[in-house]
C-alpha cells in the first residue's frame, strides 16, 4: 500500500517551509511527496530545487507555467500521484501542518478499513489550538435548501465519525473511489472545488474522520470576511456544482440569493460581481476570470 501526499503552494514560502519540515520529520513518511508550485513569483522555485534533493523520501516538484489555482494544482498533483501508483492520496494547502504522527496513524487506519466502502479518511483540523468545525460537514438537503451543517464538537470526542463534506485540509482519498467519480474539477480555479468533489466521493463510499490525526491549519481568517475577488468564484462554482448535480431548485435559489446580496450591498461593483458569477455559470464559463484575478480589489 502506497500513500502520496500532494501540497499546492503559491507565494507563501515561509509557511511552506514549516509545512515541509513537518513532512520531513514524520514518524512514518508518505511514499511520495508531491509539491505543486503554482507559478510562485517569490523564491519558492529556488528553495524547492534544493529541498527536493534532501532526505530519503521520494520528492517530486511540479512547477506550473501559470497560476492555475488550487483546483488546477490539486488536479495536477493528484494525477501525478496516480501515475506513481499511489493507493491513497493526501491533499492539503501550504498552510496545513500535520502532527508528526499523522501518517503513521493514517497507515494504521487505512490497513483496518474496507477499501471498497470508504472513499476518504479525514484528519481533525485545528486553528489556534481549537477544533475548526467548518472543515468537516454533513449535507442536509431539503426540497428548497442545500445546507452544510458542521459536524458538532461533541463528535470529536469519539475515535472517529462520518461526514459528507470536507475541505482539502488533511484528507486522504482512496484511488478506487477516484477511479469511479473522477478527480477535483480543475476548472473551478479556487473555492468550492472541495465541496463538489467530496459530494461525489460521499456518493461512492463513506468519508471517515479520525480524531487522532491532527492538522494545524494556519488559515488567515481575513480571507473569509466581506466580499472579495474570491466571492466571485464561490458563487460561480456553487452554481456550477448545482448544475452538474442536477439540483435545479438549489441553482435558482442561489441566483436569487446572489442578486439580493448585491442589491442590499448598495454597491454597484458588488452587484456586478454577483451578476458576473451568475452569467459565467449560465454560460458554463470556468477557469480564472480576468476581471477577478487573485488580489483584485472589488470594493
From TrEMBL:
The keyword Cell inner membrane does not apply. SUPFAM superfamilies: Nucleotide-diphospho-sugar transferases. Residues 6-113 form the Glycosyltransferase 2-like domain. Coiled coil: none annotated. Pathway: Cell wall biogenesis; cell wall polysaccharide biosynthesis. Belongs to the glycosyltransferase 2 family. This is Glycosyltransferase.
Amino acid at each position: 500500500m502506497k500513500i502520496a501526499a500532494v501540497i499546492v503552494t503559491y507565494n507563501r514560502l515561509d509557511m511552506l517551509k514549516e509545512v515541509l519540515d513537518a513532512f520531513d520529520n514524520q514518524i512514518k513518511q508518505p511514499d511520495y511527496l508531491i509539491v505543486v508550485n503554482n507559478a510562485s513569483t517569490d523564491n519558492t522555485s529556488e528553495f524547492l530545487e534544493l529541498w527536493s534533493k534532501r532526505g530519503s523520501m521520494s520528492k517530486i516538484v511540479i512547477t506550473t507555467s501559470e497560476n492555475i489555482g488550487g483546483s488546477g494544482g490539486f488536479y495536477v498533483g493528484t494525477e501525478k500521484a496516480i501515475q506513481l501508483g499511489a493507493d491513497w492520496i493526501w491533499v492539503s494547502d501550504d498552510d496545513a501542518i500535520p502532527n508528526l504522527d499523522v501518517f503513521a496513524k493514517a497507515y494504521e487506519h487505512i490497513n483496518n478499513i474496507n477499501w471498497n466502502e470508504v472513499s476518504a479518511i479525514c484528519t481533525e483540523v485545528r486553528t489556534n489550538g481549537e477544533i475548526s468545525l467548518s472543515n468537516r460537514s454533513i449535507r442536509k438537503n431539503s426540497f428548497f435548501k442545500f445546507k452544510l451543517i458542521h459536524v458538532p464538537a461533541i463528535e470529536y470526542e469519539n475515535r472517529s465519525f462520518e461526514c459528507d463534506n470536507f475541505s482539502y485540509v488533511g484528507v486522504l482519498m482512496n484511488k478506487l473511489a477516484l477511479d469511479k467519480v473522477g478527480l477535483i474539477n480543475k476548472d473551478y480555479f479556487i473555492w468550492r472545488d472541495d465541496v463538489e468533489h467530496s459530494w461525489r466521493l460521499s456518493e461512492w463510499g463513506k468519508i471517515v474522520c479520525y480524531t487522532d490525526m491532527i492538522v494545524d491549519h494556519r488559515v488567515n481568517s481575513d480571507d473569509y470576511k466581506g466580499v472579495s475577488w474570491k466571492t466571485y468564484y464561490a458563487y460561480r462554482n456553487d452554481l456550477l456544482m448545482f448544475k452538474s448535480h442536477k439540483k435545479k431548485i438549489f441553482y435558482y435559489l442561489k441566483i436569487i440569493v446572489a442578486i439580493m446580496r448585491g442589491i442590499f450591498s448598495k454597491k454597484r461593483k458588488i452587484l456586478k460581481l454577483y451578476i458576473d458569477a451568475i452569467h459565467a455559470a449560465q454560460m458554463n464559463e470556468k477557469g480564472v476570470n480576468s476581471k477577478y484575478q487573485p488580489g483584485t480589489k472589488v470594493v
